[in-house]
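Attaching the record inline, Q. Sequence:
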Amino acid sequence: MITLAQAQTILSAGFAHARAQSAKPLAMVVLDAGGHPVAMAREDGATFFRADIARAKAYGALGMGADTGVLAERAKGNPTFFGGVVTTVGGDLVFSPGGVLVRADGVVVGAVGVSGDTGEMDAECAIAGITAAGF
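Structure, as predicted:
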């Protein structure tokens, strides 16, 4: 389980990492293992689609059981299947780095989605937040 306090730590630390790296303005979403939002924030200057994209990254990681960076690589080799998955879930999935699973003792307890900079920077900020929250 991800508590609200842990989710807020993920957001705060993820945004702090983004500012230290001079990343573009981000949106971050923390979901529990059931895909329900625990916390979300959008930095000043982040476009309003960013929160939706961040949520789709986190949701996709949960639904597919892997970080979206991994899924993006898999999708390159099997675009028909992954396109079908996107259609099946009503488009609520983004195959770009920045959706990162949160694990406690090897069990998936949620996911973090980040959007606003490059996929690699988005993932880096998610990982910084997850690590700061003790996962």
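The chain has a mean pLDDT of 96. Helices lie at 4-20, 49-64, 68-77, 79-88, 119-132.

More tomorrow.
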